[in-house]
Design a protein that fits this description.
The complex is a heterodimer of chains A (113) and B (111). In chain A, 35% of the residues are buried. Chain A has no helices and eleven strands. In chain B, 0% of the residues lie in helices and 55% in strands. Chain B has no helices and twelve strands. The chains are: A mainly beta (113), B mainly beta (111). Chains A and B meet through strand 4, strand 5, strand 9 and strand 10 of A and strand 5, strand 6 and strand 11 of B.
Chain lengths: 113, 111
Amino acid sequence: EAGVTQSPTHLIKTRGQQATLRCSPISGHTSVYWYQQALGLGLQFLLWYDEGEERNRGNFPPRFSGRQFPNYSSELNVNALELEDSALYLCASSFLRVGDEQFFGPGTRLTVL
Amino acid sequence: AQSVTQPDIHITVSEGASLELRCNYSYGATPYLFWYVQSPGQGLQLLLKYFSGDTLVQGIKGFEAEFKRSQSSFNLRKPSVHWSDAAEYFCAVTGFQKLVFGTGTRLLVSP
């Protein structure tokens, strides 16, 4: 069974540009989560989507947004990139059951110059 | 709000020696607790989880963890460490579907 996949593996942008990161969940999973792992800041929850709806959002500005498609894949968009957005962005998926484990993809390394 | 504390930033263990990584959590109700491992440049792999029931939980790769409600702890253990266990370990608690992670403990294994 295929795991969570993310693309691209690496992404280099300049300040002010927009970045789009993509995630495909494990087959059967309806929930997709996005986390940011920035140097010195640890792993922080960004967004949770389920059945095409945003269900929960972490403490990030509105320029971090996303969506979930009918096939449950998801996009994370980061507008007006800032240097501190440089991080590893991890996507995870799960069934929608309370406390169910989340399975993580390998991440997208975003570098903002 | 829920939180997780991993007091040890780095731990060095000799190959073959036992390991214990500490994790303390803060959560208002019965917590759902997890340990994940991250190798360099990789995503997170679930080692084990605790939802309810037996407080000693067995996981993959020979790891186990014990839930102690009185101490708000969920420490990870392994009786004999292998060089391939060198990685970063994250304890996490879940609240309303989002995972709240500790800052991680980097495990170094010496020969």
